[in-house]
Amino acid sequence: MTETFKPGSKRKAPDDEADPDLQDLRDPDPPQSFGGSRSSQPDPRRSGPPDPGVSADDYFRHLYDTEPDFAQLAKQDPDFKAVVQPNGQLDFTNPHATMQLTKTLLQADFGLKIDLPEDRLCPPVPNRHNYILWLKDLMDTTSYNPPGRPLCGLDVGTGASCIYPLLGTRQRPWTFVATDIDDKNLAYARRNIHLNNLSSRIHLLSRQPSDPLIPFDHPSIKTKTIDFVMMNPPFYSSPDEMLSSAQKKSRPPMSACTGAPVEMVCSGGELSHVGRLLRESLALRDRVQWYTTMLGKLSSLEALVEQLREAGIDNYAVTEFVQGSKTRRWALGWSFAPMRPAEHAARGMKAAIWKKLLPPATTTDLLQLPVDTPVEPVIARINDIGLGLASENVWSRAWRRKKLREQSQQGLDNNMQDPSPSQQPAECRLGFEIRVVMGKAKTSVSLHWREGHDPLLFESFGGFLSRKLKENK
Ligand SMILES: C[S@@+](CC[C@H](N)C(=O)[O-])C[C@H]1O[C@@H](n2cnc3c(N)ncnc32)[C@H](O)[C@@H]1O
Asked: What are the protein's UniProt keywords (predicted)?
């Protein structure tokens, strides 16, 4: 049956009631340290999730800053109480216990209900939530619109849980296209969409393994553009690799902890799957603003950053998701569009050794002043504090000399006329923002790169402004 999908249709209020079963499998390393803190204080977040929107960002951002309080969760949910051990810990090698944790967290923290089969991947909520938090940062900071605008995303390989579209729609006015190739996953995903009354906002598509990952070819997709693509690709390159990984972790093979081969294995593993996405992106270019993927291997991230650079893609973002003491995942995004993500979204890997993987910096500190020094005289010579767009390197001496020459040749009359459309710049080469932050101890002035493809232009402008501000000190 062919369905027609239009992004932006209205959301209905979720109907409710918790449902049972689930767990993850491509998340090796059961986070043994992810044990419940035994605080006797009720956790304020347990008063329930707020309504979606930017005003709820703070609640969602800090949900998993500390480990979930298993004692508190057990009080809230008898199904969870039944799987917590007498010592208050959870046995992460027990698929039933980990599945219940996922169900309980989704219900308690997001008001979501979920049903999962025992032989498919069960997603760990904090890790999947981290991806959504990062996407929010990426999309919010690569638009001149205020944060929180409605967006249409594509989740490639949504799984039985349909977890990304569920989490995304719960937090923002987003709509999703969600695809999968596995009938059982599709059946459960459909059920989970329905359980949460999200049929008008999540459009599920059955795909063949040989179909394009981005389903613009599908007759139901009427939109010409998608704001973002997200993907948690099959991780392993062979069933053997998957089985030996499950054995090393003392996990039952083909359970919700390990997933099924159809969802966890593809020829060439995640590197080859993301390679497919990259090739499709090179053809589709601006039809998607951000192409993103999660990665389970650091070596894949290194190889893919290299491939992006070889393809001439200068606008990309990397980050890492850390859960507990052992589990680490990475995410990579790339864009053909000129809007540059904020530093925290684009360069989310802190260790110095990963500096070589990072895209160019998008923030530069211009000046710091003691808090009692008035800032106004310092910034008076910058024409505008706020957002700016430059079509050329207008701050360089050479540009100013060139402009003076042109003006004297054109004569006064010409200068009084508006520029003709052909004289107007076709694109903005540098969009920037200057921020003045008055803290308790100091005032900082910083420059933020918002738009453009040329890091040298941004650096040069930063140097120019910095000199101007220091002249003024
Ligand atoms: C690692 S699982 C991720 C599931 C879910 N998104 C999550 O994060 O828990 C990969 C998913 O991709 C699906 N998949 C594999 N190849 C695909 C393809 N060519 N197109 C769409 N989905 C695919 C699998 O069936 C599986 O559900």
From this structure: Methyltransferase, Transferase
